[in-house]
Amino acid sequence: MSNIGIKDFILNLNRNKNGIYFWVINLGELGLESSAFKDGEKMPRKYGYTEENISPPLSIKSVPEGTESLALIMDDPDAKPVAGKIWTHWLIWGIDPGIGEIPEDWSSTATEGKNDYGEKGYGGPNPPDKAHTYEFKLYALDSEINLKENSKKKDVEKALKGHIIDKTKLRGVFEP
């Protein structure tokens, strides 16, 4: 007897054009990488808020069939003890699922939200106390998100609910 181990999966309830509901299991193949740093490793200084404040290059791999758009959230969970919340650095939605590569210092063709610096677009790492781990969370969606530019993270996360086909995460460490 053999066992199959599944680390992560997403179970989606879908409805076809005839109104019949069916379950789809996605085994989580979506990938996100950067040529500037490996997952869990140190990010180059130039991506910092007080440095060049440019977004890192990102490579998107294995976008699942049926993906209509992508969304990306970059945040800092380590900021909570200092800032009192998870700090949002970048919100983008309406990313073309066929993009493949998001270049460094991307002039987005997608819609960008307001980060916790109060600015639209990318706001790089700026840890006040110690090294923080920043998370780039990529979502493959079954539809477009209809939100206005400069929307906040809570609005984006609410709009994502029920539309996530797959998701992945890339982590980068940044020191003060």
Question: What are the main properties of this structure?
Answer:
6-stranded mixed β-sheet; PEBP; globular; Phospholipid-binding protein; YbhB_YbcL/LppC-like; disordered N terminus; mainly beta; Phosphatidylethanolamine-binding Protein
Summarize the structure.
The protein has one domain: Alpha-Beta Complex (Phosphatidylethanolamine-binding Protein), CATH 3.90.280.
Give a verbal description of the structure.
- The protein has one domain (29-174): Phosphatidylethanolamine-binding Protein (Alpha-Beta Complex).
- It is mostly beta strands and 176 residues long.
- The strands form three sheets. Strands 4-11-10-6-7-9 form a six-stranded mixed sheet, with helices on one face. Strands 3-5-8 form a three-stranded antiparallel sheet, with no helix packed on it.
- Mean pLDDT is 89; it is low at 1-8.
- It has helices at residues 80-83, 153-160, and strands at residues 10-15, 21-26, 31-33, 41-42, 58-61, 69-76, 87-95, 101-102, 111-112, 132-141, 164-174.
- The chain is built from two helices and eleven strands; from the N terminus they run ββββββαββββαβ.
